Amino acid sequence: MDPTPNIYAEKTALIDVLEKAFETDGLENIVEIFKSHSRIFIDLTDSECDAIFTPDNFDNIDILLTLFNAFDIEKPIALKSYFEQMYEEEDAVVLHSNSYFLRDCSALEAEQMREKYGVWVLSKDEISNRVFEDLSFKDEFEPDTYFGKNDNGWRNIVDINNLRIPPSNSLIISDSFLLSNKVHNHILGLANLTQLLDVIIPKKLRIPYYILILSSAKDYEETQMLQRVSEWKEDLIRSLNRVFDIHVEFVFSQRVIHKRIIYMNYCFIGSEKGFKVFMPFSNRVYRDGDQKNSIWAYTYFHDPLRAGRREHQLAYDDIEKARIIYKKARDNYDNGDNTIGQPKFVDSPIGTRFSPNRIFY
How far is C-alpha 276 from the chain's CA centre? Predict the structure, then answer.
């Protein structure tokens, strides 16, 4: 993930969207994202881009320059070679899995790209003011109550609130208390993750899905928990029953990036008291004292007109911390250091030197 979100936009699609914004009200959030919260890459060569944005002849100004000046948007970055690569090999979108793609294509073609690769590809015809803010949710859950009718409480949250989870092909979970509570021999956090992941991981992908989980265990329980988590990882893959490969890396670390959060390619899901929200494989809210448990979920472009640091920037900071934890666990693994309390993998890491989890890239 880059510190600033990247938008890869075809010139014709960009002109279409900005002309709509210029001619009618209702795309203020989109313009603000283009203007203040992203870098725009365009399907032009350096010379083509310079000819448009630094013209020699002001009698024949390109409409793109007129629109960028009207909205005070910075000059885009020319990167025609990458667009040509995508046209030849469509899975090249995966090289920038945390970026956004604005294409001059049909809505159906864009949807198919999202489904195949878990990357946020949008047709110019799909652009609406809050298209990047589809996921905006916060609610509290009363202990010992039943939420919804399905025995998967997490699915009920999504269905009842009509939540739209953005496309994804990777995620990172951090919850220092994930392994802390047991009910009927179930580790409550892991049981909840099994059901939550079944809800938020897409059904169709043509590429593998990567999951990295950071959590901790008490020193005297670490050996036992390593075995329990290893078994859970195998059970998880069977339970999810997807047609594509799912790779799970689990790191024990006394330090995690955040007490309780999930970072996906384009959104995050947080919890006030951890992901032990429901009783195992149930819609009954778990009682952890008398206080309610809060859950929230937002896209990284949430409320772009609001002042202050952006969700994307906060996510970037945490993901960089996760990178450091992962590297330490990898160094320990490569050096054969299995000291209690130090970052370590449950089973073996994936890849030769660094995680293939696309949230990092």
Answer: 21
The closest alpha carbon to 123, from 113, 133, 135, belongs to 113
- How open is the CA angle 51-55-57, to the nearest 5 degrees? 125
Banded model confidence at residue 309, pLDDT cuts 50, 70, 90: low
Dihedral sign of CA atoms 244, 157, 110, 36 in order: negative
Alpha carbon distance 110, 116 (integer Å): 10
94, 161, 291, 344 from 131: Cα distances, Å: 21, 17, 34, 40
User: Collapsing DSSP states into helix, strand and coil, what is residue 71?
Assistant: helix
Distance (Å, whole) CA 111 – CA 122:
8
Average confidence (pLDDT) over 269-294? 88
Q: Nearest Cα to 278, choosing from 166, 142, 103, 164?
A: 142
Whether 97 and 6 have beta carbons less than 8 Å apart is answered as no
Model pTM?
A: 0.94
Task: Give CA 254 to chain center in angstroms.
Answer: 24
Note the pLDDT tens digit of each residue in 186-234: 999 999 999 999 999 999 999 999 999 999 877 778 888 889 999 999 9
End-to-end CA distance of the chain: 5
Domains 6-129 and 136-360 share a fold: no
- Judged against a pLDDT cut of 90, whether residue 184 lies above it is answered with no
Burial environment of residue 69 by CB neighbours within 10 A (0 to 12, 13 to 18, 19 or more): exposed
Rounded to whole angstroms, how far apart are CA atoms 280 and 45? 55
> What topology does CATH give the domain 6-129?
Rossmann fold (3.40.50)
Residues in CB range of 344: below 8 A, 6 or more apart: 251, 252, 253, 329, 332, 333, 338
Domains of the chain, residue spans:
6-129, 136-360
The phi, psi pair for 234, rounded to 5°, reads -65, -40
Q: What is the CATH number of domain 136-360?
A: 3.30.870.30
**Are 13 and 101 a contacting pair, CB within 8 Å?**
no
